[in-house]
Write a structure and sequence with these properties.
single chain, 435 residues, 16 helices, 3-stranded parallel sheet, 5-stranded parallel sheet, globular, alpha/beta, TIM Barrel
């Protein structure tokens, strides 16, 4: 396959929410109570809702910076590439990257919308959450039909309200929700409790994909505060394996054939051994653990119900059939530091040597189109959706690295190994906490 003929759809990207996001979507009676983006005297931004602040306004949004600044935490929108918070500039950046479609997780609300879980006034929180979904679906995604896969957040504190909201967003064309990879870590019932049964049923019946982003439940571990931050970055995608081991045991997956779980930003290279281990565990231990897969293997359940994704995973691509070729999707992770924007097609092609076009098409777009009921071709025309066609539309886009400000994990000019402790301290400072 030629690089210009490839079609790319990402199931993991991120939005930095613009200050005006609620203006057209919140009832007039609630505008004074809605979250507000505040600018300080020194130009920093933060979101405030009730008595809580979110100071990490541009969390890891470092796309477009030189690599030596990837560890510099943005503290204001002015330090970000415009494509992080402006949908029209985002589409320009997608075109420059040859990226056709994108599913976007939120930032200040949390990847799973858990920001609202701690709200004092849950009735108000639900109204704001609905306004957030309306903005995301109608304004962000609706501004460029065919370019985005809508992703809704749900009221995690009330499963019946969650079902109500899912029905509402499905009517608006949204068939994906964000959910914690381990709700029990947030003080909610575990996925094995009957409490969540209405959620599983509605997602099965309406073919709504449940997207579990890394870090929304099980926190990727820091071996120690003295460990080089590289250790945490290396293990971060694989941390989702702990959740995957739990989700694969979910008995609802045996009752609901159309229930789909996406392991967002989790990578794929670890999956073959994970499935081998799951099958061995069941075969070797089920007589005393009493787990029951109806005569089938855990790996069968995984390949029928789970979606995986990767940025640059040559080992995973080489072993794609052991992962499950029909489970694999692409992710760009724009604008985070792991993203290889604007050179995603080049990175992918380097790992696709010897891979048949049929397999490439499945991993880069066909699996996403099927799982998310997403049909950009009928809107845009397939001939306009290739890497080559999209990049022609972006000849005016400047993708050269630009230096920007923000807080550094170590003193400027100091060159030493950055540790987990440095980064934790930086985030504490950005949240206004004591170090």
């Amino acid at each position: 396959m030629k690089i210009e003929d490839m079609i790319l759809i990402s199931v993991d990207d991120h939005i930095i929410e613009p200050p005006s996001m609620f203006d057209a979507h919140i009832p007039a009676t609630l505008k004074d109570k809605a979250p507000k983006c505040v600018t300080t005297e020194n130009g920093d931004n933060y979101w405030i809702f009730e008595d809580r602040k979110v100071i990490n306004v541009g969390l890891n949004a470092v796309a477009g910076r030189p690599r030596e600044e990837y560890g510099v935490e943005p503290t204001s929108l002015s330090q970000l590439r415009k494509g992080t918070y402006d949908v029209h500039a985002r589409v320009d950046d997608m075109n420059a990257n040859g990226l056709l479609g994108s599913l976007n997780f939120g930032t200040f609300v949390g990847f799973d919308g858990a920001f609202f879980l701690d709200s004092k006034d849950k009735k108000l929180a639900f109204s704001i959450l609905q306004a957030y979904n309306d903005w995301h679906i109608d304004e962000w995604c609706g501004s460029h039909p065919g370019r985005f896969i809508p992703l809704a957040i749900i009221p995690l504190w009330d499963v019946n309200l969650a079902v109500e909201e899912i029905k509402r967003v499905v009517a608006k064309g949204c068939r994906a929700i964000s959910f914690s990879d381990n709700p029990n870590a947030k003080g909610l019932p575990s996925i094995h409790k009957e409490y969540w049964e209405p959620l599983w049923k509605i997602c099965n019946d309406e073919r709504v994909v449940i997207n579990c982003h890394i870090g929304t439940g099980y926190a990727p571990p820091h071996p120690s505060m003295d460990s080089p931050i590289d250790a945490w970055i290396t293990s971060m995608p694989m941390a989702i394996a702990t959740s995957a081991a739990d989700w694969i045991q979910l008995t609802a997956l045996q009752r609901y054939p159309d229930l789909k779980i996406a392991l967002s930003e989790g990578g794929i290279g670890w999956v073959p051994y994970f499935l081998e281990r799951a099958d061995f565990t069941h075969e070797h231990h089920h007589e005393w653990t009493h787990t029951d897969f109806g005569g089938r293997k855990p790996s069968d359940i995984f390949r029928e119900h789970f979606l995986t994704c990767f940025i640059d995973d040559k080992f995973g691509v080489k072993n794609r059939h052991e992962v499950g070729i029909d489970t694999i999707c692409y992710e760009c992770d724009y604008p985070h530091s792991d993203s290889v924007w604007p050179k995603a097609p080049e990175y992918l092609m380097a790992g696709f040597d010897g891979v048949p076009d049929e397999d490439i098409d499945k991993m880069t777009h066909l699996n996403v189109i099927r799982a998310y009921d997403y049909d950009p071709f009928s809107i845009l025309g397939r001939e306009n959706c290739t890497v080559g066609a999209l990049r022609k539309q972006a000849e005016h886009v400047d993708t050269s690295p630009k230096s920007a400000g923000g807080n550094r994990p170590v003193e400027e000019g100091v060159k030493r190994v950055v540790t987990s402790g440095d980064v934790v301290k930086l985030f504490q400072q950005n949240r206004g906490e004591a170090a």
